Amino acid sequence: MSERIERIKTFLKETPDDCFLNHALALEYIKLGNDNDARVLFEKNLNHDPGYIATYYHLGKLLERNGMQEEAIEMYQRGMKACKEVNEMHTYSELQSAYEDLAY
After folding, report:
1. With DSSP H G I counted as helix, E B as strand and the rest as coil, what are the percentages for the chain, rounded to 5?
2. Long-range contacts of 82-89 (CB under 8 A, 24+ apart)
3. Dihedral angle of Cα 44, 80, 94, 56, to the nearest 10 degrees
4. DSSP readout, 31-63?
5. Three-state SS for 70?
6. Residue 45's domain spans which residues?
7. Residue 66's domain is classified under what CATH number?
8. What is the pLDDT of residues 5-47, one digit of tens each?
9. Helix, strand, or coil here: 18?
10. I need a surface site. Which of 49, 78, 79, 80 has the fewest CB within 10 A?
């Protein structure tokens, strides 16, 4: 495994529910083609903190890559709702674009 992955895992031993670290590790797994472990981490983030909005886009894209279009659409919709709740319009527009590309 890469040095970066090992470093992130070391930090996660101290703070296993850190959404930023889990998200970073998931992105590293995606780079390696390991969507399964990435998905587990993204879902852990959403279960721990549904307001961690960065996760919705990346999990949606992962689901798309794996042929799960309906689940991806639902993820984008959940993300757009979460963005509205915290008035995060930049991420909202990214999620909306991904949603529209897939749904229409």
Report:
1. 80, 0, 20
2. 82/50, 82/51, 82/53, 82/56, 83/53, 85/51, 86/51, 86/53, 88/53
3. 10
4. HTT-HHHHHHHHHHHHHH-TT-THHHHHHHHHH
5. helix
6. 3-103
7. 1.25.40.10
8. 999 999 999 999 999 999 999 999 999 999 999 999 999 999 9
9. coil
10. 49
Neighbours of 24 (CB within 10 A): 18
Which amino acid is it at 35? Answer: D
Number of domains in the chain: 1
User: Does 62 score more than 90 pLDDT?
Assistant: yes
> For tokens 């998905």, what's the residue?
39
Radius of gyration of the chain (CA): 14
Residues 51, 91: Cα–Cα separation, whole Å: 12
